[in-house]
């Protein structure tokens, strides 16, 4: 979901806005030729959707690395080309890189550890959501997402799989915050926090309360 504010924390956990810090890198990366063969010498141990990063993938990621001033560590990640969401393999969404970058293989159903419908039963763009995805969406919208198969694009439009758009997540969040009711909740023990108000919502959490680098975040409607 290409929301107004996104975190460059998919790979590194850094709390930096993609639009503010990675915008030029993203714009250049989107125009990069994505046709290339896998190069074992240059793959660097980065796996995207179960496939070793190609030279073209790495050229795109290097744009982000130059913007962040850091090197993406070796590891397995998932990336949703339709929405731009991304995260560690087996885990929830940790941020948004932007849609249409063409990174990795097609998004597998088990990218976040599920895949057969028994983990949460909610699929977005073919990926079964992680329980922490469901928790984050519940915090944002006040109710858990429905079980079933849905699509979400880079602008936040969503609908049932194979059907036209039912609405827009950003607009819904702004409506929820526009009523004047806002709140902030923080749990030091788990390292999680939730803010909703003025058409903006932000949820922070950790896969493991004791590990700061296991953080994830959702931003909807935040400038």
Explained architecture:
The protein has one domain (18-220). It is built from 5 helices and 14 strands. The protein has helices at 18-21, 23-30, 55-68, 131-141, 169-177, and strands at residues 46-48, 51-52, 75-79, 85-88, 95-96, 122-124, 127-128, 148-152, 157-160, 167-168, 183-187, 192-197, 200-206, 215-220. The strands form 3 sheets. The protein has a 5-stranded mixed beta sheet with strand order 2-1-3-4-5, with no helix packed on it.
Entry keywords:
5 helices, disordered N terminus, alpha+beta, five-stranded mixed beta sheet, 223 residues
Determine Rg (CA atoms, Å): 17 Å
Sequence of secondary-structure elements: HHEEHEEEEEHEEEHEEEE
Class derived from helix and strand content: alpha+beta
Residue share in helices?
10-25%
Which stretches are low in confidence, meaning pLDDT under 50 for 5 or more residues running?
1-8, 13-42
What is the overall shape?
A: globular
- How many strand elements? 14
Largest sheet: 5 strands, mixed
Q: What is the total number of structural domains? A: 1
Proportion in β-strands = 25-35%
Please work out how many helical segments DSSP would assign: 5
Strand order of the largest sheet: 2-1-3-4-5
The end-to-end distance, rounded to whole angstroms, is 15 Å
Mean pLDDT: 75
């Amino acid at each position: 979901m290409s929301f107004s504010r996104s975190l460059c924390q998919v790979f590194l956990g850094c709390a930096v806005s993609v639009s503010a810090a990675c915008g030029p890198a993203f714009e250049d990366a989107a125009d990069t030729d994505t046709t290339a063969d896998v190069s074992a010498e240059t793959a660097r141990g980065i796996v995207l959707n179960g496939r070793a990063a190609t030279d073209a993938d790495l050229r795109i990621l290097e744009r982000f690395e130059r913007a962040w001033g850091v090197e993406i560590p070796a590891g397995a990640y998932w990336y949703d080309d339709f929405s731009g969401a991304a995260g560690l393999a087996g885990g929830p969404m940790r941020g948004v890189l932007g849609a249409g970058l063409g990174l990795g293989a097609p998004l597998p159903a088990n990218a976040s550890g599920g895949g057969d419908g028994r983990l949460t039963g909610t699929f977005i763009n073919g990926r079964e959501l992680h329980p922490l995805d469901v928790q984050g969406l519940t915090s944002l919208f006040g109710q858990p997402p429905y079980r079933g198969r849905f699509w979400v694009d880079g602008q936040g439009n969503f609908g049932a799989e194979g059907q036209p758009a039912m609405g827009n997540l950003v607009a819904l969040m702004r409506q929820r915050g526009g009523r004047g009711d806002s709140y902030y909740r923080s749990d030091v023990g788990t390292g999680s926090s939730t803010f909703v108000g003025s058409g903006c919502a932000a949820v922070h959490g950790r896969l493991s309360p004791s590990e700061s680098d296991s953080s994830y975040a959702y931003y909807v409607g935040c400038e």
